[in-house]
Amino acid sequence: MVQKQKFNLKNDVIFKAFFAKKGNEEFLIDFLNGLLKIEIKKIEIREEVNLEKLKNEEKGGRLDLQATLNDGIIVNIELQIQDTDNMENRSLVYAAKTISRETKKGTKYQDINQVIMINILNYKLLPYKEYVSDTVTVLNKHREYEVIEGVKWYFIELPKFRKAKPDMNEKLNQWLALIDDRNRGWIEMAEKNNKTIEKARIEMGYLSGDEELERLAELREKWTMDYDSGVNSAKEEGLELGREQGLADGIEIGKEAGREEGKRNEKVEIVKKLLKTDMKLDDIVNIVGLTKEDVLEIKKQEEESK
Q1: Which of 61, 88, 152, 289 is the one with CA 20 to 30 A from 145?
Q2: Is the predicted pLDDT of residue 258 greater than 70, yes or no?
C-alpha cells in the first residue's frame, strides 16, 4: 500500500532523491522535455542521491541535481526555496565551475559540452510577469545573432506560476503543478493528461515511506524554518531599534543586522519607507548603502505593485 505523502518536491532533499533515484529517469526526461523542447534519447544522472552526503549538507548546504543528455549536454537543476539574494551571480559561478570540471587538460574548445542551468525558485526574482525565463547571449547591435551558445540559464518562478492560468495540456505546466503542490485541481488535470505524472505521484508515495529520507527531509525543513525565523527576528530587532534611536541610527543598525544575516531584505524595506517621504534619491542611496540602480529598481517594483 502506498503511504500518505508528507513532503513534496519543494523540499530539495526529496526533489533530488526523487529525480536522481535509479529507475526514475523517465520522470526527469519528461520534465526536461517539457522545459527544453528537445528530444532526449539518453540521460545519465551524474550523481545518484547519496544519503551520507545529504546528511552532511542538510543543514543549509546546496543540493543540486546534474545530468548529461544525449552524451553531451550537461543540465544542472537547483531548487531554491529562500531568496538568499544574488541568484543570478550564484548561478553564473556554478556554471563556470561546471564548465571548468568538464574541461580537462587537452580538451579542445569546440569539444566543450553545452551547460544548461535550471533554477526553480519559490520566490519572485525578475521584474517581469513570465514565470519561465531563459537567456541568450547576443551581439548588442545584432540581437538576432546568438554569439555564445555554450551556457544557458532558465529561471522558473513558482509564485508567478500560481497566479497564472497555465495550460495543463503543456508538459512543463503539469510538472510545475506537481512540484509546487498548491493547486489540487491542476495536479488532477496533470495526472489525467500525462500518465507519467500519475506514475510519479505513486512513486512519491513510496518515497515518503523511506524513514531515513524522511528524517533528512524533516531536518532540511527545520533548518529552513530556523533560518527564516532568525532572519525575521533580526529584521524586527533592527526596525525596533530604529524606531527607538531615530531614523539615522536605525538605518545603521539595520545595515549591521543585514550584513550579519547576509540578507538584503532589511535595506529594501528601509528604502520602501524612505521612498514614501520627500527624501531625495541620492540621499537614500547614501544613507542605505545600495546602488542608485538598486534603489530605482525597488522604486519601480513598488510603483508596479500599486
Answers
A1: 88
A2: no
